[in-house]
Amino acid sequence: MDESCFQAYEDEIQALQEEIRQLTEEYEDIRQESIFFSDEEIQKAMYAFFHLKSFEGETKGHESLSDLKAELESLERDLSFLTAFTGFHFTSHSKKTLERTKTRTVQKHRLSGKCHSLSFQVEFQLLEMLNNEKVSAVVSDLSIAMESIGDSNVSKFVSSMEEHADLLTFFGSISAYAEWYEHRKRTFLHFK
Questions:
Q1: First-to-last C-alpha distance (Å) of the chain
Q2: Other Cβ atoms within 10 Å of 158 Cβ, number
Q3: If DSSP codes are grouped into helix, strand and coil, which group holds residue 102?
Q4: How far is CA 153 from CA 77, 145, 158, in A?
Q5: Which residues are in coiled coils (predicted)?
Q6: Residue 141: which residues within 8 A CB-CB, separation 6 or more?
Q7: 131-186 residue pLDDT tens
Q8: What H or E segment, with its residue span, contains residue 136?
Q9: At what angle do helices 167-191 and 152-164 cross, to 10 degrees?
Q10: Rounded distance, CA 173 to CA 87, Å?
C-alpha cells in the first residue's frame, strides 16, 4: 500500500478516537449529573417515566399524541410568557466540564441571547459542590460582552458584575435597563 492510503487510515483512526473521547465525556457528564439528585428524586423520575410508558401502551397512540401536542403548546405558551415578561431570549448555550470528582464539578458555561433589543454573551465557570446531599453552586470567572450602546455607566456596571461574579444581579439589572432603554429609544425617535 502507498503512503497516502496509510495516512487516510491514520486520519480515520484519529477521528474515531476523538469521537470516542467526546462520547465518553458526554457519558461522564450525564452520569455525574445524576449523582446530584437524591435517591428519592431519581425514584420519582423513574416512576413518572414508567408511568408514562404504561400510559402510552394503554392508549392507541392518537390520544397520547394529542396529549403531547397539548402539553407542547402549553410549554410554548409558558416560554412565550416568560420571554415577554423578562425580555430575555436565549439563542445559544454551551457547557463544558472542566473537572469532576464525587463531591465537586467545575463547568464552563457560555450563554448568548438578547434582552429586549440588547445582545449579550455571558461566560462563566460554575463550581458545584455536594455536601451532606445538598448541592451548592458558586459562579466565578464571569465575562460579559454586550453590544456597544455608548453608555459608560453600563460599562462600569458590567465591569463591577464581572469583578464580583454576580450573575443574578447582572440578569436582574440588565432586564430593567434594557426595558427602559427601549422606552428611551422610542421616545427619542418620536421627537426626531
A1: 75
A2: 19
A3: coil
A4: 35, 15, 9
A5: 6-33
A6: 108, 123, 124, 125, 165
A7: 887 888 889 999 998 876 677 788 888 888 899 988 888 888 888 888 888 878 88
A8: strand 134-146
A9: 170
A10: 12
